[in-house]
């Protein structure tokens, strides 16, 4: 990791630059999946306590993002899609990103423990550590399985939300974890298919760099097949039902079909049309996770009524 300092003549940091350090797009996924995990969990939480719990989980997710941007500033400066981030662009110093990440980490864990319970707070602390240290500092630069193992960090929020409401875990949040965990590799590998040069130039051992695009295509299709049974299984638990099952069946048929299209793709044709199919499947993957958790939310509301 190379320290990035604000350079002379760089635009002065604005409030939105510090917000950008928290990776608000990723945080929105953390908030949504954690809220769904909390909402569908058995038992009742006071609405204000539930709001505070989700807020502190979001802050923990933002802290992870800031720590990631601090350590990955040298990589971000090379890649086209990340070079305008606050640290590599020089608007925010690496020290500021590190300080913000550490402060928010401690604050979010402490406040979640006080607002909900210390078991949930411990899970949040482990999630921050896993993303910032295990994934960002170790796995990302060391192994092509970085996004596979590292995907666990993004899969913990629904478990944390469930733990806030119940003080424990069950098969339902573990299946929510599995849903996100097995979705993460095909989601990012679809992106890596048309962003391979960025990862190569940055020295990140993404699967497309170490094993090539044909192997990546096979891995994507295999993971869509592994993912589907967990998505369906979740619909057969206490949080599932006909609404969720209908959505899950359709979404997984579409995702498997997308993986099949990628698998059967000729590389020359892909280059010729600018990786059109790969970009379509990547966009589909963005909706895949959202519709599953939205269906859980709607199923929960339907059950409550």
From TrEMBL:
Q: Which reaction does it catalyse?
A: heme b + (2E,6E)-farnesyl diphosphate + H2O = Fe(II)-heme o + diphosphate
Pathway listed: Porphyrin-containing compound metabolism; heme O biosynthesis; heme O from protoheme: step 1/1
Transmembrane is among the record's keywords: yes
Under the heading Pfam families, the entry gives:
UbiA
Q: Which CDD domains match?
A: PT_UbiA_Cox10
User: Which enzyme class?
Assistant: transferase
Q: Name one GO molecular function term.
A: protoheme IX farnesyltransferase activity
Checking PROSITE patterns in the record gives: UBIA
Q: EC number(s) on record?
A: 2.5.1.141
| Its membrane topology | Multi-pass membrane protein
| Assembly | Interacts with CtaA.
Q: Anything else the record notes? A: Carbon 2 of the heme B porphyrin ring is defined according to the Fischer nomenclature.
Q: What protein name applies here?
A: Protoheme IX farnesyltransferase
Source organism per UniProt: Paracoccus spongiarum
Organism lineage = Bacteria, Pseudomonadati, Pseudomonadota, Alphaproteobacteria, Rhodobacterales
């Amino acid at each position: 990791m190379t320290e990035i300092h604000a350079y002379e003549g760089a635009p002065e940091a604005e409030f939105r630059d510090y917000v950008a350090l928290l990776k608000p797009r990723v945080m929105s996924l953390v908030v949504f999946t954690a809220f769904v995990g909390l909402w569908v969990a058995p038992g009742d939480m006071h609405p204000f306590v539930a709001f505070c719990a989700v807020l502190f989980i979001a802050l923990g997710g933002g802290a992870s993002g800031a720590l990631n941007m601090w350590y990955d500033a040298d990589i971000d400066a090379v890649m086209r899609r990340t070079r305008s981030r606050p640290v590599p662009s020089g608007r925010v110093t690496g020290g500021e990103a590190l300080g913000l990440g550490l402060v928010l980490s401690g604050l979010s864990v402490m406040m979640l423990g006080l607002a909900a319970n210390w078991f949930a707070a411990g899970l949040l602390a482990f999630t921050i550590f896993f993303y910032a240290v295990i994934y960002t500092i170790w796995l990302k630069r060391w192994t092509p399985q970085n996004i596979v193992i590292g995907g666990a960090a993004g899969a913990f929020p629904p478990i944390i939300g469930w733990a806030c409401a119940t003080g424990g875990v069950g098969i339902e949040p573990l299946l929510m974890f599995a849903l996100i965990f097995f979705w993460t590799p095909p989601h990012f590998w679809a992106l890596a298919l048309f962003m391979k040069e960025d990862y190569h130039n940055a020295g990140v051992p993404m699967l497309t760099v170490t094993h090539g695009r044909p192997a990546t295509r096979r891995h994507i299709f295999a993971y869509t097949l592994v993912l589907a049974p967990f998505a369906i299984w979740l619909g057969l638990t206490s949080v599932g039902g006909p609404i969720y099952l209908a959505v899950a069946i359709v979404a997984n048929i579409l995702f498997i079909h997308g993986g099949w299209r990628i698998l059967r793709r000729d590389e020359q044709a892909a280059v010729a049309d600018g990786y059109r199919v790969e970009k379509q499947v990547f966009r589909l993957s963005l909706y895949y996770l959202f519709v599953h958790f939205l269906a859980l939310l709607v199923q929960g509301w339907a059950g409550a009524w």
